[in-house]
Write a structure and sequence with these properties.
eleven-stranded mixed β-sheet; globular; alpha/beta; 15 strands; four-stranded mixed β-sheet; single chain; UDP-N-acetylmuramoyl-L-alanine:D-glutamate ligase
């Protein structure tokens, strides 16, 4: 079973508005509302692929109840820990006519020390029931930046695979504990190392740095250029595919994590882990709804992925 951690979940609302601009009044031509936050996108995609999934994190208020109801409807085991604060709402305005996306992300509730310590106690019990753990996104106010390190340490003690997908200080601190996999994009990794990188040699050096930090299976996302990964044995590959027409890219990184988690839970070979992640990320771009795939599209895109051997580190 896969355990997904979303400490700062949200209701994700997506509005389709042509010619969106400031100082205007608009009536969306389409709108969706889903249980969101990066980890819940991971959970939904993994469930669509047929995997048993448990979702956890902190949740509260009417928005929290909406998320509870959605998880029940799609067959995800709901193990969220209640808090007094109100779960946030995040808005994405898609202007397909001009190919733009505008996001408005609420910060989320303030969490007390007692609340996040209660979560840690529950997390110990939940980890024992799964084989792969994913932790995604930001932390709500009140939780220390090194919180993910605590989760990684617990999972490693119990010999569970841990995938960390976050950014900034959360990523910098989490790497110190040596999670099994991380997948920062170029901007997120630039925040960690403090300098730009763009060449093949830069990418290989970045993966080598992550390996030395204790990350077993580091991945660097290159957006529409695919990704570069250092497999557990040290082999480095560039994974890529032909260009595709995109409907909505929001949630594609989460779909990638879901595909990797599913493949790891099924004990797939490392190259197949990344390929399934890539196929899920590509499939997600074909849907208006955030964090959505279909098994048919995943299978189709899986056949399109190409790999290029870049060496050994």
């Amino acid at each position: 079973m896969i355990l997904t951690v979303t400490m700062n979940p949200a209701i994700d609302k997506v509005y389709a508005i042509d010619d969106f601009h400031v100082h205007g009044v608009f009536r969306p031509k389409a709108m969706t509302a889903t249980a969101g936050g990066k980890g819940l996108n991971v959970a939904r995609v993994a469930r669509i692929l047929g995997q048993q999934v448990m979702a956890t994190g902190l949740i509260g208020g009417a928005a929290g109840q909406f998320i509870h109801d959605q998880l029940h409807n799609i067959g995800i085991i709901d193990n969220f820990v209640p808090i007094k604060g109100e779960t946030r709402i995040c808005i994405n305005i898609m202007d397909e006519k001009n190919n733009t996306s505008t996001e408005i992300l609420e910060p989320g509730p303030v969490v007390s020390e007692d609340e996040y310590k209660a979560f840690l106690e529950r997390f110990e019990e939940m980890v024992a029931q799964c084989d792969v753990v994913t932790a995604s996104g930001s932390l709500p106010r009140g939780i220390p930046a090194d919180f993910y390190r605590s989760l990684i340490a617990i999972a490693k003690r119990k010999r569970k695979i841990f995938i960390l997908d976050t950014s900034g200080e959360y990523l910098k601190e989490g790497i110190k504990e040596g999670p099994f996999m991380v997948k920062p994009n170029q901007h997120e990794f630039r925040q960690v190392v403090g300098h730009d990188f763009s060449t093949k040699e830069d990418y290989v050096s970045a993966l080598k740095l992550l390996k030395r930090s204790g990350v077993v299976f580091p991945v660097l996302s290159l957006g529409d250029k695919g990704c570069v990964a250092a497999l557990p044995n040290g082999d480095v590959y560039h994974f890529f595919s032909p260009p595709i027409k995109v409907v909505n890219t929001v949630g594609s990184g989460d779909a990638f994590v879901a595909g990797c988690a599913v493949a790891l839970s099924r004990a797939a070979q490392p190259i197949e882990v990344i390929k399934l992640g890539m196929a899920c990320g590509m499939a997600n771009t074909q849907f208006f709804e955030t964090g959505m795939v279909s098994p048919e599209l995943v299978a189709k895109f899986l056949e399109c992925i190409q790999i290029d051997f870049w060496g050994v580190i």
